Amino acid sequence: MPVTALYLVQDPSINATTITSVSERITRLFPRSVGKWGFEYKLYRENPMLTTHHSIHSLPSQPGSQQQQQQQHMPSTPARFLAQLYITKHRDDLFCLIDEPHGGYTSSGAAVANKAVMAVFDKGMDSIVATKLQSLWTLRQTMRGEGFAYSIGDEFVVRVASVTMSGSFRFIVIEVEYLKSVDLASSKQPIADLIAKCDLPRGKFVYGEKIEIYKPQGANVARAFTKIDNALQYVELLRSGPNG
């Protein structure tokens, strides 16, 4: 798919009405609206009752042994988190990222590297997690984005959304899709130039490059941008955005 980047508008002066002025600035330059769009983000926490010590804690030991001494000083493995994302432009897909900020410990006491796994499911997986798997995962946070998309010639599509949590305004997200490239590195400058041209409020770019996920062998070889890369951008932004 074409490359995308997110622009998070987080100036302290903005409020729920700011999205109107942002949209007006874009439509003054590029008046073609292509309709509504939006997304929904849910963050689940592993049920604390099911959090186990995937480490030396679960192994039997003899009193006074070296293994027991390791057990006494080694912290337990934190609970995992499940980020769930639905974007209307990927209407049939539900993106799920299981994030383990600490991977625990091996039987020898060595720390396991941080890890995360991104998977794409059918949209129906949302209701399965909420009903069938509710004993495993507890919903902690829900954010929703709603807004409009604008076509800019044959080069860009700009999507603007006001993000709310529990009905309260949080911030504004602008997605810029650059239709002329499938390479993120070479697309950053044209995208930045477009944002500058729109004269938007102060913000920051999010490219989805801060989340480490498992990749198959050879994944470091240059590859085309995918919808998973697009989803990682949203997860990175929404789990570390302002006020949340």
Q: Which features does this protein show?
A:
single chain, 244 residues, alpha+beta, Hypothetical Protein Pfu-838710-001, nine-stranded antiparallel sheet, 5 helices, 35% strand
Question: How is this structure best described in words?
Answer:
Helix content is 23%, strand content 35%. It has a single domain, classed as Hypothetical Protein Pfu-838710-001. With 244 residues, the chain is an alpha+beta fold. A hairpin with a 5-residue loop joins strand 3 and strand 4 (93-100). Strands 5-4-3-2-6-7-8-1-9 form a nine-stranded antiparallel sheet, sandwiched between helices. The longest helix is centred in the last third of the chain and has 15 residues, at 184-198.
Mean pLDDT: 81
- Major sheet characteristics: 9 strands, antiparallel
What oligomeric state do the depicted chains represent?
Answer: single chain
Classify the fold: give the CATH topology.
Answer: Hypothetical Protein Pfu-838710-001
Helix count, DSSP H or I runs of 4 or more residues: 5
Computed structural class: alpha+beta
Distance between the termini: 30 Å
CATH architecture: Beta Barrel
Number of domains: 1
- Label the overall shape: globular
Helix content: 10-25%
